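thought: fold this chain, then report.
action: predict
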Amino acid sequence: MTPDELLALSRLDAEQTLVTEELALLRSGFQETVDASAGSNADDEHDPEGSTIAFERSQLRTLIRQAVQHLADIEDARTRVADRRYGLCEKCGQPISAERLEARPVARTCIACARLST
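observation:
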C-alpha cells in the first residue's frame, strides 16, 4: 500500500470514529426526547410545547440519517482506496486536491466538478 493510501485510510478511520461517536450521541438524544414525551399527555397540535418536541425529534432523525449516510460514504471511500480510485474525480478523472481530501476525506469529485454540480 502506498503512503497516500495509508494516509487516506488513516483519515477515513479518524472520520469514522468521529461520526460513530456523533451518531451514538444523536441516538441517545433522540431516545431521551422520545422518553421525555412518552409519559406526557401532550397533543402536538394543541400543546404549545408539542410542536417543539415534534420539531426536535424531526431534527434529530434527520441528523441521524445524515450520520448513517456519512458512514456509508466512508465505507465507499475505503472501497475506492482498495480499488486505487481514491483521490480521482468521478466526473472528470482528474486528481482531487490534497487539501480537499484533507478537509473532506469522502470527496468523490474535484472542486471544479463539485461547483458544476451545484
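thought: worth noting. The mean pLDDT is 90.
final: C-alpha cells above.
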